[in-house]
Design brief:
Structural class: mainly alpha
Shape: globular
Order of helices and strands: HHHHHHH
Radius of gyration: 20 Å
Helix content: 55-70%
Length: about 210
């Protein structure tokens, strides 16, 4: 990675920190500020920019829908630099594994806590979460990076993306009417998996935006 993104020793990568800051700005509420500014103008609350500052209800894509995927990208692309520094510091492989699994577990745990773990309604506790997805995705990505070369990573990425598209676009949910669109919540196989495996532990009765397949 260093030959593509050269850095001086013990220096941070300014471009990555800038991108992280841009993403965190929206996570902390910059989108709401932009909407408030838009509303200062006639019909500004319904303008294109204001609409981009919120999620789509189900199907489509707006700017605000890219914030979480961008955060996952930043978390993943940061690992090679962290891994390199740990190796330079003579950290043992076991210590690196422990750090990876610890971070993954803690993020899943914090996600459950944010979902209301301490309210002890375990029969309806939402299991998927934003933090949980970050933890699991980052952990799997870190392990893949440690054990594969670039060519293998490209193949893994291609299989995941193409495979996900084929399932989403051509496999209809078995529990829904065949006439229902495959791109709808009820017809989506992606949502069906969550309904099947976590019927009482998802965000909505019929789907979860941070579900298993995703």
């Amino acid at each position: 990675w260093e030959k593509y993104l050269p850095m001086e020793k013990n220096k941070r990568l300014a471009s990555l920190d800038t991108l992280r800051g841009f993403d965190m700005l929206f996570i902390m509420g910059f989108a709401s500020l932009l909407v408030a500014i838009c509303k200062l103008f006639p019909e500004g609350g319904d303008c294109w920019l204001a609409q981009q500052m919120g999620h789509v209800d189900w199907n489509g894509l707006r700017h605000h829908d890219t914030i979480f995927p961008l955060f996952l990208f930043i978390a993943g692309i940061s690992f090679p630099f962290s891994y390199s520094k740990q190796l330079e510091g003579n950290a043992s492989r076991g210590k690196i594994y422990l750090k990876i699994f610890k971070r993954g577990f803690l993020l899943v745990l914090f996600g459950l806590i944010c979902n209301g773990l301490f309210r002890l309604h375990l029969d309806t506790l939402r299991l998927p979460s934003v933090l949980g997805r970050i933890g699991l995705a980052w952990m799997c990505g870190a392990l893949i990076f440690m054990h594969t070369k670039t060519r293998t990573r490209i193949w893994i990425t291609a299989v995941l993306l193409i495979g996900y598209y084929l399932i989403a676009g051509f496999v209809h949910a078995p529990d829904s009417d065949p006439s229902v669109s495959i791109w709808s919540v009820d017809g989506s196989f992606i949502c069906y998996v969550d309904r099947l495996l976590m019927p009482n532990h998802i965000y909505q009765p019929n789907y979860d935006p941070e579900g298993i397949m995703g």
